[in-house]
Write a structure and sequence with these properties.
Elements: H1 9-29, H2 34-42, H3 46-56, H4 63-78, H5 85-93, H6 102-116, H7 120-133, H8 136-147, H9 152-165
């Protein structure tokens, strides 16, 4: 005779709330203004952005939606405010987002502006993103910029990433 597991009330609450979230997401996907709502949230405070990014992690936006979403999410992934950079990176790395090379095209078009920033935090987030996306040519350009910088903090990014990730 097997005993049925006895779950704590906290676990039961987590499980019930998870079900409520999934049901809410199911109905949200059916709304006519889903894309507009996502854009509003991505341009709001960090909490709204996080909710939108968590929702987008498992979604497959259309090509036209991705054209609009990509630059916003790339900026979040590279921005020196790290609150949502990991969630943004997870969206960008998601294979559904990379289906038609939109992320690659958008990031390439934004890349020179990121390099012009000479900002160590931007460079670090950009290096992390390029590592996960495996964009070797852009990664190489960034590492060259870091290696030749007069700012020791930026040179440290080169040293750290070449040692840690074999760039």
């Amino acid at each position: 005779m097997t005993m049925k597991p006895i779950y704590s009330k906290e676990w039961i609450t987590v499980n019930e709330d998870d079900t409520k979230v999934r049901v809410s997401q199911f109905y949200f996907r059916k709304t006519n203004d889903l894309f507009e709502q996502i854009l509003l949230a991505l341009n709001d405070d960090a909490a709204e952005q996080a909710t939108a990014l968590r929702f987008l992690r498992n979604e497959c936006p259309s090509a036209s939606e991705l054209e609009v979403l990509a630059p916003v999410i790339i900026n979040m992934a590279v921005n020196e405010n790290t609150d949502n950079s990991i969630l943004a990176r997870q969206c960008l790395v998601n294979s559904a987002f990379n289906q038609n090379r939109t992320i690659r095209k958008k990031l390439t078009s934004m890349f020179d502006d990121f390099l012009k920033s000479d900002n160590q935090y931007t460079y670090r987030r950009l290096a992390e993103l390029l590592f996960f996306l495996n964009y070797r040519d852009l990664r190489k350009r960034l590492m060259e910029k870091c290696k030749n910088s007069k700012d020791k903090n930026i040179v440290n990014i080169y040293t750290e990433f070449t040692e840690q990730y074999d760039f």
